[in-house]
TrEMBL record:
Positions of the ABC transporter domain: 6-237
Protein name: ABC transporter ATP-binding protein
Pfam families: ABC_tran (PF00005)
Alphabetized GO MF terms: ATP binding; ATP hydrolysis activity; branched-chain amino acid transmembrane transporter activity
Any Gene Ontology biological process: L-amino acid transport
SUPFAM superfamilies the UniProt entry points to: P-loop containing nucleoside triphosphate hydrolases
């Protein structure tokens, strides 16, 4: 067995000099997989994503991407080697237009990014229609599309999404999940935190249940959905 594409292993750490939030937390993603993290509020899901992206100092554990040890690499350097991250909050520039947001996403690129922008518009046609509107005027679902599109502008190999469907209607949620599946089919690996745990696990190759900064359950999405204990404690029965 070769090493997983992303191997965030045994991460322990917290914010600044505060207490540890993550305790021996491990997350792995293989090429082209959709991996979903679920768990109660405050479980450390966003913190784990930040740790993988290099926004948190972990004092134990390591992160490798495609076999390369990136544990001490800055977030910006991680972007340049293929990580894209859509944070849970403040993930668009509301005063800029949709197109300016996408251009900002391409900040690390020195080549022609118009083709990538075209791909983003094909994935999210509404963004093409609204390209000259400020992102602040868009609906929640459209704003999330801008945020995902912006991350795609760097041509990531691993796309990390923290609650991409937060605050959107069930129909918009389904649509966003369909687009995420489409992105995964192009070979991009997905690591995603989701509050809509049931629906997210339906599309997950692998799921993690995190509780108090620790791995509690890890299995295929289907197996977690079928597990009575997971259902009872984390999926509302
Ligand atoms: N910037 C921060 N500074 C200090 N503590 C934080 C910060 N962000 C989150 N925390 C704490 O870390 C814990 C986990 O939070 P978080 O990772 O946001 O959980 P989740 O995303 O699973 O809801 C919580 O106790 C929260 O209060
Ligand atoms: Mg969170």
């Amino acid at each position: 067995m070769s090493e997983p594409y992303l191997n965030a292993a045994g991460m322990t750490g917290g914010y600044g000099t505060g207490a540890d939030i993550l305790h021996d937390c491990t997350l792995t993603v293989n090429k082209g997989e959709i991996v979903v993290i679920v768990g109660p509020n405050g479980a450390g899901k966003s913190t784990a994503m930040k740790a993988v992206f290099g926004m948190l100092n972990i004092h134990t554990g390591s992160v490798t991407l495609d076999g390369q040890d990136i544990t001490s690499m800055s977030p910006q350097a991680r972007v340049s080697i293929g990580m894209g991250f859509v944070p849970q909050t403040q993930n668009v520039f509301t005063s800029m237009t949709v197109e300016e947001n996408l251009e900002m996403g391409a900040f690390i690129r020195h080549d022609d990014f118009r083709e990538t922008m075209e791909q983003v518009y094909e994935l999210f046609p509404i963004l093409r229609d609204k390209r000259n509107q400020s992102a602040g005027e868009l609906s929640g679902g459209q704003r999330q599309q801008v945020a995902v599109g912006r991350a795609l502008m760097t041509k990531p190999k691993l796309l990390m999404l923290d609650e991409p469907t937060a605050g959107v209607s069930p129909i918009v949620m389904d649509e966003l999940f369909d687009r995420i599946i489409e992105v995964a089919r192009t070979g991009i690996s997905i690591l995603m935190v989701e509050q809509n745990a049931r629906q997210a696990l339906e599309i997950a190759d692998k799921g993690y249940v995190l509780v108090q900064g620790r791995n509690r359950f890890t299995d295929t999405g289907q197996a977690l959905l079928a597990d009575p204990e997971v259902r009872k404690s984390f999926l509302g029965g």
